[in-house]
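Q&A log
Question type: sequence-to-structure
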Amino acid sequence: MILLVLFSLLLLGCGKFEELAREEDLLERPQAKRCADCHAEIFKEWEKSRHAKAWVSEQFRLESENYTKNKCLSCHAPHQVDPDKKPILRVEFKEDGVSCVACHFKEETKAMHGPLKVWSPPHPSKEDLSYLSSNFCAGCHQETFKQWQMVKTQKSCQDCHMPSLGKRDLIQKFPFHLFHLAKPRHSHEFPALKAKPEDLLLEVKDGKLYITNVGVPHNLPTADQGDPKLYITVIVNTPQGKQTIRRLLSAQAKTALEHGKPYEVELPQEFKNLKVLIHRRLSHSEERELILEREFN
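Response status: OK
Response body:
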């Protein structure tokens, strides 16, 4: 069978083979599940992502007042995602959220775009290095992008939120998988990463606790929509007994930890020791997750 495919390719030539193999519906903005016919592994990753649930999430339905807040809608079901531009709202298949077609199909070229140079007979493909830039995310994640710019880090959004999976096959469908060697691939789960203990610098001096975000290259927490939270609990042993200090930091309240800027917690005048616990809660979750626990004696 493989030999037959290769013989056909030699006999017909690439141009004729592309013409015969072209699947025209792929250029008519199909549902995301259509892309799974060839890109099964990437589709499975995307299905687990918040991008896939961007429109159908119950939280978004409530916060958008049953899809009536026009300001919020287009980033949850974009027609076409381009660098530095807020997208317009898609008409078809809104339930797919931030879909394969929204990010990869370009009306101007009638082709699928991506960061790799590939030959794909079922649809035209174009190498597009803008997919490697944080600007690609800026149209929807505007506030987070501005925060990232202020940090002046070399890390891109993709470096953290599309982690490398090494070299993998892009296509799983016969016979098209025969035309590709494994290529560098990145996760399409778009994980909302949790800060590590070493991302936060804690210092006690001059009667205050200072907490500084030194490792996350944007505010902690951050969000353009939704309201993730950071919970700071300080348990202080004083001569009079235990005292608990609580602080709630929120993206929407603009109280988040800015990169490099110490956040101050006033401590009792006299204390023996203290314990600091910092938890986070994602906007789509009720669960608090521990980031760090540290004691000062």
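Response note: The CA atoms of residues 79 and 90 lie 4 Å apart.
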